[in-house]
Specification:
four-stranded parallel β-sheet; binds iron/sulfur cluster
């Protein structure tokens, strides 16, 4: 692959150091003078007192900046610099499909036979030029039951390649920009080899990465047209091609994910329209759309100590739940598959009563399709809690690392993970309701001690 120059999204030429971005930030809320000093330090590459250790990578500051200077991209650049110096935290291996004992490999132990069949099919299909592949992606892979077996898949060829790294979407949020550029180059070769003209992705974030970030920041222009899945879904509902047989009569609140704030909020309304069509009444959270709080995942980007990462993530997620619960809604709806697996894990650890659905599940219920809700989600949440806890234990004995290998290794990422006896024991214990309650309680008790924020 040739060496390309990256183009930073931050426009230093437009920034007048007004500090509004970090002053209005829903996480930092810095006094204006501190905000001005902080942004100056970030630009000059000096020590950051707050941002690089506290930012939740929520994108909001790009919308607060009156100059359209994209301060969020400045933060990503500084994290990229930090990655070059200190490498990635050892726990981060579990979200790298090319590292041993990653979450997808470990989850193979717990997938149902039906899930294995879906994934096997999505893994092995090679798209033909007239196909429109639907990129299932690394996150939807974790809970394939939200879309597996649905009539919605009849419109596409579902493809599951976890070593496409969601186009680099979650690495981008952590500031691993040079790695994202390599992913952009690698996916371009793959898409061109498929010869397809259109590609859809389950996540808005992935559509945005391919359509905007790769060409504008990574210097990699894809030849394909990218279809926004939510907009496609709304169009099909409006044209009656997808028929909604049931009105759900459900009071819901909507989680706007971080990537939804890109493109001036172009992603906010389609999911809301879909929910209304399905008979949902929306009660917004205090922070919504451009001010929306992160599900918690972004707290891992500004990591300080490896051991603290899960505790920082979950404690930030608790704030989201508090806002969702305050609305009095029966259900919290996410239109991002990246957030939903974490929201379910947080719900179980918080023992929150609010239901959580992906917008796809809402549509499927309105279409009259049957879901095994909430059992599938509860099972998967505890699979994931067990895997994260186990990965945290393994990470204590490992050093920080660089993400060198990008392409999936069939040998170790196969459907035959090693024995992992301890993980299996942990997961077996989590089948006992009392153990789950005690574990959740212990997690909450240790959280104030182990988190860094
Ligand atoms: S990305 Fe979000 S949390 Fe980070 S500085 Fe910007 S507004 Fe604050
Ligand atoms: S990035 Fe924008 S909001 Fe932030 S200091 Fe510069 S001009 Fe002001």
């Amino acid at each position: 692959m040739s060496k390309l120059k990256r183009i930073s999204g931050f426009r230093e030429d437009l920034c007048n150091l007004c500090g509004e971005c970090l002053h209005l930030c829903p996480v930092l809320s810095l006094p204006i003078e501190d905000a001005k000093e902080e942004i100056k330090n970030l630009i000059e590459g000096k020590d950051s007192k707050y941002t690089l250790t506290k930012c939740n990578t929520c994108f909001s500051c790009n919308l607060y900046c009156p100059q359209n200077a994209n301060p969020y991209n400045l933060i990503l650049e500084r994290w990229n610099d930090l990655y070059k110096k200190r490498a990635a935290p050892s726990l981060y291996r579990f979200v790298c499909p090319t590292e041993q004992n990653n979450i997808w490999q470990l989850l193979n132990i717990f997938l149902s036979n039906q899930e294995r069949r879906w994934i096997y099919k999505w893994f092995n299909y090679i798209p033909k030029p007239n196909d429109t592949p639907l990129l299932i992606g690394n996150y939807t892979h974790l809970f394939p039951f939200i879309i597996g077996g649905s009539k919605l898949l009849d419109y596409f060829k579902p493809i599951d390649r976890i070593d496409q790294w969601e186009g680099g979407a979650y690495l981008y949020q952590g500031g691993y920009l040079d790695v994202v550029q390599r992913i952009a180059q690698r996916t371009k070769i793959e898409f061109d080899n498929w010869g397809v003209k259109k590609i859809a992705a389950c996540l808005d974030a992935v559509e945005y990465i391919f359509k905007e970030v790769h060409p504008k920041e990574m210097g990699v222009v894809h030849a394909q047209e990218f279809v926004n899945f939510n907009q496609w879904l709304l169009d099909k509902i409006n044209s009656n091609e997808i028929q909604l047989k049931n009105q759900l009569n459900l009071k819901v609140t909507v989680h706007d994910n971080c990537y939804s704030k890109s493109l001036d909020g172009a992603y906010w309304e389609a999911p809301r329209e879909i929910l209304k069509k399905c008979g949902c009444r929306i009660k917004e959270m205090k922070h919504n759309r451009k001010n929306s709080l992160c599900c918690g995942f972004g707290a891992g980007a500004s990591w300080v100590k490896n051991i603290s990462i899960p505790f920082d993530i979950i404690s930030e997620g608790f704030k989201k739940f508090k806002e969702a619960e305050d609305t009095g809604a029966k259900a919290l709806i996410s239109y991002c598959g990246g957030c939903i697996y974490l929201l379910w894990a947080i719900k179980e650890l918080k023992r929150s009563k609010i239901d959580i659905f992906h917008v796809i599940e809402i549509v499927r219920m309105a279409m009259g399709e049957r879901l095994n809700y909430p059992q599938d989600h509860i099972k998967r949440a505890w699979d994931i809690i067990a895997i994260i806890s186990y990965s945290l234990l393994l990470s204590v004995y490992k050093k920080n690392f660089f993400l060198n290998k990008l392409i999936y290794d069939e040998k170790f990422s196969s459907f035959q993970p090693k024995r992992h006896t301890l993980l299996k024991i942990m997961r077996a214990l989590f089948k006992i309701s009392l153990v789950r309650k005690v574990y959740a309680l212990l997690f909450r008790l240790f959280m104030p001690i182990l988190r860094t924020r």
